[in-house]
Every structure is written in C-alpha cells, then in structure tokens.
Design goal:
Blueprint (H helix, E strand, L loop, with lengths): L6 E8 L8 E8 L2 E6 L7 E4 L4 E4 L1 E3 L7 H4 L11 E5 L15 H12 L3 H7 L7 H8 L7 E3 L2 E2 H9 L1 H4 L6 H17 L3 E6 L18 H14 L3 E6 L4 H15 L3 E4 L9 H14 L4 E5 L4 E5 L12 H4 L6 H8 L2 H9 L19 E2 L14 H8 L3 H14 L3 E6 L7 H7 L4 E3 L16 H12 L8 H15 L16 E4 L5 E2 L3 E6 L3 E5 L2 E2 L1 E6 L2 E5 L2 E2 L17
Parallel strand pairs: 1-4, 1-5, 6-7, 7-8, 9-10, 10-11, 11-12, 12-13, 13-17
Antiparallel strand pairs: 1-2, 2-3, 5-18, 14-16, 15-16, 18-23, 19-22, 20-21, 23-24, 24-25
Amino acid sequence: MTAQPDLVIRGGTIADGTGRALYEADVAMSGGRITEVGKVQAKGREEIDAKGKLVTPGFVDVHTHYDGQVTWSHEISPSSQNGVTTAIMGNCGVGFAPCRPADHQRLIQLMEGVEDIPEPVLSAGIPWAWESFPEYVNWLSERDFDMDIGTQLPHAALRVYVMGERGARRDPATADDNRAMAALASEAVRAGALGFSTSRTLNHRTSTGDYTPTLKAGEDELTAIAGAMQSAGRSVLQFVLDISTIHEDLRMMLRVAERTRCPISFSVTQNDRAPERWRQTLAEINAAAAGGLSVTTQIAARPVGLLLGLELSRNPLQTHPSYRKIAHLPLAERVAEMRRPELRAAILSEQATATDDPLFFRPNYDKMYLLGDPPDYEQPPENALGAQARARGCRPEELAYDAMLSDDGRGMLYVPFLNYADGNLDATYEMLRDPSAVPGLSDGGAHCGIICDASFPTYLLTHWTRDRKRGDRLSVPFVVAAQSRKTALSVGLNDRGLIAAGYKADVNVIDYDRLHLHPPKVHYDLPVGGRRLMQQVDGYEATIVSGVVTRRNGEATGARPGRLIRGTQASVQ
C-alpha cells in the first residue's frame, strides 16, 4: 500500500527547473522531499489545487546580505516574499565572523558603509554569541527560518581577525598572515561555509569613508585562501571588481582559479563609464571556461537602481546648503518647511556639490525617473526628468522637488546607475542568456534606504517572460531554470532546484497572470525601529520549504522549516 503523501499539488503547470517545455502534472511530497511527479493517485494529508497555476522549484538567491538579519529574525524577508527558498549570504567580503570583541564596531561600520544597513540596527540586533567562524555557524544551526540559508566566509572579517589594524588599513599580508588565513579558511569549509567572498571595488567603504580592507589584497593571499578552502571541500570564490581595475583584477582572479581549481563567481554589469566592457569580460570568462575553469557570472535582472527621496538615505538636493540646514528635522517637519515658497526658492537656486559618498552622484536628470505604479524599470529616455522638464519649459530640479514632496514627503525618484547605459535592457538580455550567467545581485537584506532589488526573482518572471515591451523576452522555462537549478548548482547545492522525485521539496505555486510588484515603500520594522525598503508582491499562492507551506496567498504561515545549510549538498541518486 502506498504511503499517504504529506502534501500534493494538483494539476499545476510545471516549470521543472530543467528548462524543458511546460507540462501539466501533480507533485507529491513527504519527509521534506518530492516523492512523485505525474498523476498522483494517493490523496495527500494536505492538498493544493494548482489548476491553471505555475508550479516551479523554489528560487535560490546566491547574492544576499542577511548576515545580520538571520541573527535577530526568523523571517528572511523580503526574499521569502519573492519565491526564494534558499538564500546565500556572506557576499562581497563583508560579514560578522570571525570577529574578536574589540572589532565588533569595525565590522558593523563596514557593513553599514558597504550595504547601507544602519549601525543602530546592527548594534542592537546582533548578539555576538561567537568569535570564530565555526562558532558562528554552530550558533546559526540552532535557529529556524522560513527558508534555508547558506553562508560564506567574508574576506574582510578574516583579514581583520588575523592581521588586526594592519589588515584594516590594507597592508600587504605576510607569509605568516597567509598561512593563518588559509588555516582558518579551511576550518570554515569544514564547518559548513559554501565559499569565500572578497571585494576589490572602490565603492565599498566603511561608514567612516575608509576603503574595504580587501581592496588591494595580493594574489598570494587570495591563492593561499582559495587553495586551502578547495582542499577542504568544494568552495566558491565570490568577488566583486571595480570597473577602473577590472582589466588586471579579472586576469588575476582567473589565475587564482587556475592554480587552485576553485570555482569562481562574480558580478558583471554594464557601466556608463565603459558601456561595452561587459562584452569583453564575458568573452574572457567564456574562454576561461572553455579551458576547464568553473566560472559563474552573476547578472542583475534589471538596472541596479538608486531610490532617492526625503525618507531615504539620499536625495538629489542633499548637498544644497539650504536643504542641509533642515536635513536633521523629522520628515513631517522637513516637508512643512520645504513647502514654504521662500525655502523652495532658496533650495532650487543652489547647485549640488560633489561628495566622497560613492552612492551620491551629482544629479543627472537625464537618467532620473519617476518609478510609477506599477513600477517601470525600463523607461524610455523621454520619460526622464530632464526630458520632461525641457518639454514643460521648467527646470528638472523643480520636478524632482515636487515629486519628493508627494505622498507627504514619501515620493521617490529612480536612478538606474548600472545596466542602463543604452536607455534600455538589451544588454541585460544578452548577459542573462550567456552560458556562464546566473541571476544574482539582489542584495536581499542590504541597502535598506537606497536600493530595493530583492524582488529580482519576481521581476525575472513578470518583466522578462510576460510584460516587456521594449525588446525581446525570455521564456518561463528558461527563467525558472536559471534562478532555481542553475543558481543551486553554482554554489554546490545539488539537491534542489528541480521538480523531480528525490529532490528537496522546495516549491512555488504562482498565479502567473496575477503576479505583480507594487512600488517600494519604507517600513520601520528592523531592530530599534530601523528603516528598510520593501515591495508588496501579489501572485504567490504558496511557497513551500522542505514540504511545509511557509507562505500562503502572500502571508506568512509562521512555519519555520528552513535551516542553515552546512556545506555543499550531494546530488540525488
């Protein structure tokens, strides 16, 4: 007699993660695994009617920054609201282990500066119940979540732990330093790290303005660490490069990968300063892959865009002297002041000045938009505030001023600063279709007051398979495979990302026609009332983790079947 399944999804349209054509089937699951796909005869203890609905594997997001959030929250939102059932954190070289007590504030300032997570939130929320990386993962393994989480060893934390002040000020590592870091890296893999992350971009600075400790780490240092990790078990070397040094740094990272046989994964974007460089980068990557290296490129699903406003971290008027005089006021008081005609005239008579803030650019109103409702991330140049102002015979600063005052001062401006050099997403389309590519860079958990990109998984389905009007689209099977099976394999999680018998029962049931992103809004739900940008999502009828429904019709069920993933996961036999 066949055992009764724990859960059966009936009659859904299956995108199984392989990339093959959609088909209709039932899906049964028990004991946290998919047990049958096809016509399931047995009645489940729980059943979901998925007729006319899209059924996909749970999405695997390989680029998040939940390192702080997982220590105080069991809900890994906003990613859990976007069909993600596995999130990988510890990216870009920043994180909180290993760390000596004397360096707590240093790592908080680095995370605050690099990822825009406010210091009061981190200081109040992180319990610091560990020092070493194994202690950190042991502590996390006792917690439960609404999805699985995996972690990587962050280079900045490791460097400061071993080298102290020398590491923080970016001194070259000695041979002894390299041996010590390599030993701790090997230990981290044995404890469960999926990889190691580092950063070489000038945009990554502490909240006090210092560059990240890893900016100029030597090839010998990176080789020692990557080699030790790969010897202890399969590990991914994740990194982010700077456009100004990508030519030499990419070749160095490829040499590290060739010497150590360590798989590498890094971000590729289109930059306004060198709008065709991404083609050369992908050509170099594909040549390296043809030579036997394991290389993954992480591609953003849309422009990496800044959201600017009076309630947010930055706005285009923030350097104007008259605005700076009221910048400290609570939002309602600031709005009242800015509505006074004399202050409006004063602010608009002034010019923006340069700062050393890497995410504040002197405003280019020809690349600044109103996001709209529904939010439109691929707008034509004539929609930009600069073009609108010329058409109306006014200054773009006036349009920006009034837009930010809308909704009682909660109006937002959108500035696409990566992947939009051509005024469209054609380059992103090409990048997403590259053989080396996986969707990445959502930065879930980070950039709380300036970027809201954790909705990338939903956007990949809505925009790229259904709604795009300014260019070619992608197929549903392609997108689902890219952000479930392909992402899972890129970090060594061979047990998930497919709807097939024996695989982990991580599944989404989606009302595809109703799938919809709302405009971002600010929520004050972090520790000590901290602020973060969130987007409401409609259309996820059920998200299932290890066979348990964690979200139903957009609402959390309170179930927490998610756990820390310790190391790579074996293929299903």
